[in-house]
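For practice. Supply one:
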Amino acid sequence: MTSSFETPRGPVDSSRIPRYAGPATFARLPRLDEVGGRTDVAVIGVPFDSGVSYRPGARFGGNAIREASRLLRPYNPAQDASPFALAQVADAGDIAVNPFDIHEAVETVEAAADELLGTGARLMTLGGDHTIALPLLRSVAKKHGPVALLHFDAHLDTWDTYFGAEYTHGTPFRRAVEEGILDTSALSHVGTRGPLYGKQDLDDDAKMGFGIVTSADVMRRGVDEVADQLRQRIGDRPLYVSIDIDCLDPAFAPGTGTPEAGGMTSRELLEILRGLASCNLVSADVVEVAPAYDHAEITSVAASHTAYELTTIMSRQIAEARRDKGENKDGETK
């Protein structure tokens, strides 16, 4: 992990090199190898969509988000922070996973996450379909114990199996509960809506410990009240945030595999995330961007800004932790 006395290497200077020029790392940040292989926040892609149940294409989501992130700038006024100056953030490239064997792919993601987390980094993962949340949660739980989960999604993703398959994009959080890697006193879905297979889906979900904030709840109650409710439920527990971009209405995220009408706006999502700035965010993912169904990068732009807000929260917390330790410019504790 980068020490406080090391100046983080930030994005390419867009006043000297046009945004559309050069490699599309996230927010034009340095690659992991360009910062010595160690970073505070690792942005990692998982080009995998073998777990989808409807429209494929999320394997291309990570690079679409990176392309859309070219327009991100280094100062975040909504959080009054320059995240890439507060902590070292680097693009760690993609995890190369087997597209034909889901079990092997899940194991590969978990092993890669273990390695990155073992360096002290937090993860900002760009999917890929939602199957990948399970191995990421396994890895995070090895480090922090059972974690609180905020799951932004149109769907519950707590079904048991699809066609007998236990690992799909609709089952990761049931598996996570079964494996004991989630803190069942602090689980919430946000943005859910649309038809279900039956009322039993909701009953099963409640038994696992999930609370639900529907997209209609966000509209009626407002983002401040929702964020406050979520903060109270999470407390000071280690928090993992998993965001399926289909939590947004298709008007704001058409490029996804299983769209549902009546979703949140991109503004509502970003404001709720900003309201979580005091939570102990240990890692996060943004998944299910399928660029083949996108228009004018609408979905990818929303996803890139979502990842930016999450990265800002993590960077701020890393910097605050270092200040609390009292590290001076020479890396010594006062």
